[in-house]
Design brief:
Shape: extended
Order of helices and strands: EEEHEHHEHHEEEEHHH
Helix content: 40-55%
Distance between the termini: 81 Å
Largest sheet: 4 strands, mixed
Strand content: 15-25%
Oligomer: single chain
Structural class: alpha+beta
């Protein structure tokens, strides 16, 4: 095999062994050659699916390169072993996940029933027509279409509205927004959320509270009174927290 002029060759035998600057490859040709500067080669080595690369070639710009062969080797001695160890650990975790997915897991009947009830409740909430994506809300209010999530996300961060998350997507509470005010949050919503969150509570539980019939409100859902009687909804939130506090 011809001499590879302009390259430094590092050979891997379990770990870094020696640097043969501008040397021909005298043994069996490798299955793959990694070529580039030190950072590029390190990325290639740690992302390859091969169990053990045979050779690494690092570009040497010229004889007066600012970095000597020994400096490049020192970098690899420091960085490559840890990178390969992380790569191996990641692959082991993938194997464990794959094996775990196929193993039988016994789920208690009570837990399974509870999980089904929660799944049905969440499905009912999402299918109620009261929760929309940020893009859908932006379309209603003519917000920025280039980044539609900006305004709803800011309201959520400020505690003015809330959202439930399903499969990586946030669904915002439409009933918390006033059509009369270009779909901005009702002022009472922030206070209601603050009260409900005095105790640990999930956004899904808050959503269920808003859309379900409420005995304190004569079996009217809190969401239906946000525009006409927000004070009563605030009192209903206080009653909810009080009931939880007293068991």
């Amino acid at each position: 095999m011809p001499c590879l002029t302009g390259f430094a060759v590092i050979r891997l035998v379990g770990h870094l062994r020696h640097l043969a600057g501008r040397a021909p490859i005298e043994s069996t040709p490798p299955r793959r050659i990694f070529e580039g500067d030190a950072e590029e080669v390190l990325h290639e080595v740690t992302s390859t699916k091969e169990s053990r690369p045979r050779y690494i070639l690092i570009t040497m710009p010229d004889e007066n390169s600012a970095r000597s062969d020994s400096e490049i080797l020192r970098d690899f001695e420091q960085l490559l072993p840890a990178a390969l160890e992380n790569m191996q650990r990641s692959r082991i975790e993938q194997i464990i996940d794959a094996l775990s997915a196929g193993s039988a897991v016994t789920i208690p009947t009570e837990a399974l029933a509870e999980a089904r009830m929660m799944a049905e409740a969440r499905s009912g909430i999402l299918n109620s027509g009261q929760f929309l994506t940020a893009g859908q809300i932006a379309g209603l209010a003519n917000y920025s279409k280039s980044n539609p999530s900006t305004q709803p996300a800011k309201w959520k961060q400020d505690g003015a509205i809330f959202a439930v998350k399903q499969k990586g997507t946030h669904y915002f509470s439409l009933f918390a927004l006033s059509p009369e005010d270009n779909y901005r949050p009702y002022k009472a919503v922030a206070e209601i959320l603050r009260i409900l969150r005095e105790r640990p509570v999930s956004d899904w539980a808050i959503a269920s509270w808003f859309i379900a019939a409420n005995s304190f409100l004569d079996d009217v859902a809190p969401k239906d009174l946000l525009a006409t009687d927000p004070v009563q909804v605030i009192e209903a939130a206080r009653d909810q927290v009080s009931e939880i506090s007293h068991g």
